[in-house]
Write a structure and sequence with these properties.
alpha+beta; seven-stranded antiparallel beta sheet; 20 strands
C-alpha cells in the first residue's frame, strides 16, 4: 500500500474516531480505553500497513514467560534478537504456534544482538526498509506488532533525531560514601537490590580497598577500576568488614537497570531494559513497550521494517536499531556462521560518577 493512500486512510480513520468519541468526551474527562493511543479503535487504522508482515516475528519464551521477541532474517531458521534478554532455557515460538530450541550462532555485543538458528525451513523473513530513517523524521508514525496468532500492535512516533548512544562500563550497584583514610578504601552506604554487589554479598559499611588487586583508596580510583570492565565480566574485590578482610567476586551489571531503584523517573517508568545504552545508532520513538517486547521489528506506514526495537529506556523512550545498521551486522554474522568463524565484539566506556 502506498504511503499517500495509507496517510489518507489514517487521517480518515482518526477523524472518524474523533467524531465517534466526541459525545463521550463531552460527558467525561477520560477517553475510553479503546480510543487511547494503543486502543483498538486507533490501532485498527494502522492494521493494513502490517497485516502481511507479522509472520517474521517470533516469541522467545522461558517457561511461561515471554522474555523477548525475535525477527526472522532468513527462511532457513535464522533469527536476530536482543542478546541480553536471552535465558539458558529459551524456546522460540513461531506465529503458527510451533516451538523450537534455538542455538546461538553469532553475537554482536556492541549492539546487544544475537543471531539464533532453529531447525526450520520456509520461514518468512523480515522486509527491511531500503531508505534510512534519521534526522528530519521526528513525528513519523511507527508501528510495533507483537508476536503470536492473536498479535496486537502498538503505535508511536519518532520522537528525537537519530544518534549514537555512548557505551558504559559495568557496575557493582553500590552507593559510595566517604573515603576512609585509615583503611585506604571507600565505604559502601547503599546496595541496590538484585545488583552485582547484592549477589556478591557486599554489605553497607563495607570498605572496598582493592579491585583485581589494584588499590582503590579513593572513589575516583574505585569507579575507574570497576568501569574499565564490561557488564558481565567478573571482578575480584578486597573488602574490609569490621576488622576482617574478605575476598569477594562480583559479576558486573548494566548501569541503567541497576540504578533504576535510585532514579525517580525510572521508578515511575515501570519495567525497563537492563541494557539501554551503547549502540552504534538508534531511532528514538515513544511507543509504550515492555522490555520483553524488544527484538521485534519496527515498521513504517508502508509496511517496511525501519528498525529493530532494542531497549525500553523509560516511560517515554524506546530505542530501535535502524535497518541500515542491522543489515550489515546480520550479514556479517551469517557469513561468519557459514565459514565456521565467530563474530563477537565488546567495548566499554569509562563512567564518570561515584555510583558503582
Amino acid at each position: 500500500m502506498g504511503r499517500q493512500l495509507m496517510r489518507v486512510m489514517l487521517i480518515a480513520g482518526l477523524l472518524a474516531g474523533a467524531v465517534a468519541v466526541a459525545p463521550a468526551i463531552a460527558q467525561s474527562d477520560a477517553l475510553a480505553r479503546s480510543e487511547r493511543v494503543s486502543g483498538s479503535a486507533v490501532t485498527r487504522v494502522f492494521e493494513p500497513a502490517v497485516k502481511d508482515q507479522r509472520a517474521c516475528i517470533v516469541s522467545l519464551r522461558s517457561g511461561r514467560d515471554t522474555v523477548a521477541f525475535g525477527t526472522i532474517v532468513a527462511p532457513d531458521g535464522l533469527i536476530v534478537t536482543k542478546a541480553s534478554e536471552l535465558k539458558d532455557d529459551v524456546v522460540v515460538e513461531t506465529r503458527e504456534g510451533r516451538s523450537y530450541t534455538p542455538k546461538v550462532v553469532g553475537t554482536d555485543a556492541d549492539n546487544d544482538l544475537a543471531l539464533l538458528k532453529i531447525d526450520a525451513e520456509n520461514l518468512t523473513p523480515v522486509k527491511w526498509s531500503d531508505a534510512p530513517v534519521g534526522t528530519g523524521d521526528i513525528g513519523r508514525w511507527v508501528i510495533t506488532p507483537s508476536a503470536g496468532r492473536r498479535s496486537k500492535l502498538k503505535v508511536g512516533v519518532i520522537s528525537a533525531n537519530r544518534r549514537a548512544i555512548e557505551k558504559s562500563g559495568g557496575v557493582l550497584g553500590v552507593r559510595l560514601g566517604r573515603e576512609d583514610a585509615k583503611v585506604q578504601g571507600v565505604r559502601v552506604v547503599g546496595v541496590a537490590p538484585n545488583s552485582a554487589a547484592a549477589a556478591a554479598h557486599i554489605m553497607e559499611n563495607d570498605a572496598i580497598t582493592h579491585v583485581n588487586g589494584e588499590a582503590t583508596p579513593q572513589r575516583e580510583t574505585l569507579v575507574k577500576a570497576v568501569s574499565a570492565h564490561a557488564p558481565g565480566e567478573t571482578v575480584k574485590l578486597t573488602v574490609l568488614r569490621g576488622e576482617k578482610t574478605i575476598e569477594l567476586e562480583a559479576k558486573l551489571g548494566y548501569r541503567h537497570g541497576t540504578f533504576a531503584i535510585w532514579d525517580r523517573n525510572l521508578q515511575l517508568s515501570g519495567r525497563i531494559s537492563n541494557r539501554a545504552f551503547g549502540f552504534d545508532a538508534i531511532l528514538q520513538h515513544d511507543t509504550t513497550l515492555g522490555p520483553d517486547e524488544m527484538g521485534g521489528p519496527l515498521y513504517d506506514l508502508d509496511g517496511n521494517a525501519v528498525g529493530l526495537n532494542i531497549a525500553r529506556v523509560d516511560r517515554s523512550e524506546t530505542f530501535a536499531l535502524p535497518a541500515d545498521v542491522i543489515r550489515p551486522i546480520v550479514d556479517r554474522l551469517i557469513a561468519a556462521m557459514k565459514t565456521g568463524g565467530k563474530t563477537e565484539a565488546v567495548s566499554t566506556e569509562k563512567a564518570k560518577d561515584t555510583t558503582q
